[in-house]
Amino acid sequence: AQSVTQLDSQVPVFEEAPVELRCNYSSSVSVYLFWYVQYPNQGLQLLLKYLSGSTLVKGINGFEAEFNKSQTSFHLRKPSVHISDTAEYFCAVSGPGQAGTALIFGKGTTLSVSS
Amino acid sequence: NAGVTQTPKFQVLKTGQSMTLQCAQDMNHEYMSWYRQDPGMGLRLIHYSVGAGITDQGEVPNGYNVSRSTTEDFPLRLLSAAPSQTSVYFCASKPQGVFDQPQHFGDGTRLSIL
Question: Which chain B positions have a beta carbon within 8 Å of A42's beta carbon?
Fold first, then answer.
């Protein structure tokens, strides 16, 4: 069975500081990995995804993530955050269902950016 | 494009009542799914469907029924609501078997069971 662990439930940072949101996964098969962002009272929006190839993945809004197979990690980073990055972030791995379409989500990390 | 549309956006029910959460997509996606989101729990898969007439259970299916009579619609039914079903429900869709396409999420239905 696949699972996802987000190591920090809350991450407070100051504006323009760098941030890293940590995600570890568990799977006995090849996986596809995703980061989603949820702004207050909204649905989820895809930030970036890793399917194959280069282990450094760039996404929207200046975010990037690095896939590390040996450490089974997929940490999300941004070199300089803005107030508008305040949101909840979810790491997800492809799960059961035909062709690995279903997603298994972590419990989320709340990023709070203050001035 | 409307994308994934969920109705209603908010609903309050009494214990034991039944209701149907509606989900419709206009992207001709084969795959549709329902998640519930609870504080500190992330999103958990309730049911999913890989096409009309085909549904399967996810991680937390108890208390919920689904059917898929058309490609566009994937309603979620609560037959006898319980306070434990108070949650935010999200519907999502994507093309089946196309790994580089993300799941598209609706804006959610906030459901309170009293």
Answer: 107-108
A30 with A43: CB under 8 angstroms? no
Report the C-alpha gap between A61 and B42 in whole angstroms.
Answer: 22
Q: A59 has which bridge partners?
A: none
Average pLDDT over residues B1-17: 92
Q: Is A60 on the interface with B (CB under 8 A)?
A: no
Closest CA relative to residue A27, chosen from A57, A43, A50: A50
Quick one: which of A48, A43, A54 has its CA closest to A33? A48
Q: Does residue B57 register a pLDDT over 60?
A: yes
Tell me the C-alpha distance between A83 and A69, whole Å. 32
Give the pLDDT confidence of A21-75 residue by residue, as tens digits. Answer: 999 998 777 778 999 999 988 889 999 998 878 889 999 999 999 999 899 999 9
Q: Which among A34, A43, A100 is the nearest to B106, CB-wise? A: A43
Task: Please tell me what DSSP assigns to residue B12.
Answer: E
Contact B5, B24 (CB under 8 A): yes
Q: Is B51 left (phi over 0), alpha (psi -120 to 50) or beta?
A: left
Q: Which of A51, A101, A106 comes nearest B42 by C-beta? A: A106
Mutate to test the interface with A, among B105, B107, B109 (most CBs of A within 10 A): B105
